[in-house]
Amino acid sequence: MSGAATSLGRRDFLAGASALIVAIGTTREAAIGERPSETSPFGTATYANADSWLALDANGNVTVSWGKVEQGTGIETAIAQIVADELDVPFDSVRVLQGDTDRTPDQGYTAGSQSLSAGAIPVRRAAAFVRVTLIQIAAQRLNVSADTLTTRDGAVVSKAGPQVHLRYAELVPSGRVNRIVPDDVVLKPVSAYQVVRKSIPRVDIPAKLDGSYRYVQNVRIPGMMHARMVHPQRLGQVARAIDGASLGDLRSRVRVVHKNAFVAVVAQREWDAVQAAKLLKVTWAGGAPLPAENQLDAVLRASAGRDDVVLNKGNVSSASGKTLRATYHWPFQSHGSIGPSCGLADVRETSVTIWSGTEGSFFLKRSIAALLGRSPDQVVVRWVEGSGAYGHNGADDAAAAAAIVSQEIGKPVRMQWMRYDETAWDPKGPAMLFDLEAVLDADGRIGAWSFHGRSPTHVGRPNGTAATLLAGRLTGLGPPTPFFVGGDRNAATNYDIPKQHIVLTNLTSSPLRPSSLRGLGGTANTFANESFVDELAHAAGADPIAFRMRHLSDPRAQAVLEAVRPAYAAGRGVAFVRYENVNAYVAAVVDLDVDRSSGAIALRHVWIAHDCGLVVNPNGLRNQIEGNVIQGSSRALRERVRFAPAGVTSVDWMTYPILRFSEVPEIDVTLVDRPDQPIMGAGEATTTVMAPAIANAVFAQTGARLRDVPFTPDAVKAALLR
Amino acid sequence: MSDQRFELKVNGRISPVNVDPTTPLLYVLRDELELDGPHFGCGLAQCGACTVQLDGVAVRSCVIPVSAVGTQEVTTIEGLAVEGKMSALQTALVEAQAPQCGYCMPGITMSASALLKETPHPTDAQIRQALDGNLCRCGSHTRVLRAVKAAAGSPT
Question: Which of residues 83-122 of B touch A (CB under 8 A)?
Answer without folding.
Answer: 86, 90, 93-94, 97-106, 109
